[in-house]
Design goal:
315 residues; alpha+beta; D-Maltodextrin-Binding Protein, domain 2; eight-stranded mixed β-sheet; five-stranded mixed β-sheet; globular; binds 6-O-phosphono-alpha-D-fructofuranose
């Protein structure tokens, strides 16, 4: 079976780019080791600090961020790190060609109930500066800490899936992921229905009407509350993930962050034939205004995402 190193050398002649991805993969493997025994070490609780978003940091958020920092500091190709856990971008190697933007431990509120969480990362050219559209990404990926530890990564071509084996090797388990065009499964936090706009309300109502409604098709719903878990399910079997703008999040521009959640996930989903939108524009085309900017996120099976876009098009 192909391993990550072999795949990277086949995907790019830029060894430094491959090295940047390997640094994040190595950080993911170390975070996986920490998470496996965190309940024993009593590390699933709060750190007693808040991140730039004003959200209480879990001890493992801080520990994971430190692990990423340590691995990237050892890589001279990394110029700057942008992290959800750090207010400001961190300068690293003055010779570095790449900026890495990361959510070191997304979904960490699920840690104390042992639900899949993940590390999300985006690799951008340093010459483009901190605020670059998602289309400028050189690579993106995530590590999903679940029953298996999975690395999902894309440079320019296909989105590939690797599984960490007992020897610490990332073994390719899906060469080219494909998000099915059609799906009957949506992921949204329905407790927020009272905040939804007309498009989201229309899309969900049309879906839950099932085979008795206009679509004549049965839908199911899944919401883990951990983006990596929901997106990985969609990458592997189809579906649509929605965290749309709503009357409560509109003042902040949305819930999820553009540089280290929306853009890398959109990059991966589009590499697997899926589609991504804010509702009114392609996520990867959004012009960032701040390193911690939030955006609405709707992504997954192309037919479903297009149906949401149609609802937004109705005004
Ligand atoms: P809610 C986790 O905190 C996260 O950033 C994503 O991983 C997840 O999809 C979302 O927030 C869950 O949000 O409002 O359902 O708790």
């Amino acid at each position: 079976m192909t391993d990550l190193k072999e795949w990277l050398s086949a995907q790019t002649t830029d060894e430094a780019l491959g090295g940047a991805i390997e640094s994040m993969a190595a950080a993911g493997a170390e975070i996986a080791r920490v998470l496996r025994e965190a309940p024993i070490a009593g590390q699933t609780g709060l750190a007693g600090s808040d991140n730039v978003q004003g959200e209480a940091q879990k001890a493992l958020d801080v520990i994971s961020n430190d692990i990423v920092l340590n691995h990237l500091r050892e890589n001279p190709a990394i110029s700057i790190l942008i992290s959800e856990e750090l207010d400001e971008a961190v300068n690293m190697s003055s010779q570095g060609q790449f900026i890495v933007a990361t959510d070191p431990l997304d979904g960490s509120s699920n840690l104390d109930v042992n639900v899949t969480v993940g590390t999300i990362f985006s690799v951008l050219p340093a010459k483009g500066g901190l605020l670059q559209r998602g289309t400028e990404q050189l690579a993106a990926g995530y590590v999903a800490y679940g029953p298996a530890t999975s690395l999902v990564v894309r440079i320019k071509g296909e989105t590939s899936v690797f599984t960490l084996d007992a020897q610490g090797t990332w073994v390719q388990t899906v060469a080219a992921a494909r998000v099915p065009e059609a799906s009957g499964e949506f992921a949204i936090n329905t407790a927020r229905e009272r905040f939804w706009d007309a498009a989201t309300t229309g899309y969900v109502k049309e879906s839950v009407a099932g085979e008795t409604g206009a679509l004549g098709k049965r839908y199911n719903m899944r919401w883990v509350g951990s983006m990596v878990a929901d997106v990985h399910r969609i990458l592997m079997r189809g579906g649509i993930f929605l965290y749309p703008l709503d009357s409560e999040t509109i003042s902040r521009g949305g819930r999820l962050r553009l540089l280290y959640e929306a853009n890398p996930m959109a990059w991966l989903i589009e590499g697997a034939g899926g589609r991504s939108t804010t509702g009114t524009m392609r996520i990867l085309d959004v012009e960032p205004s701040d390193i911690h900017q939030r955006v609405p996120v709707i992504l997954g099976s192309a037919e479903e995402v297009k149906r949401v876009e149609d609802w937004y098009g109705r005004g």
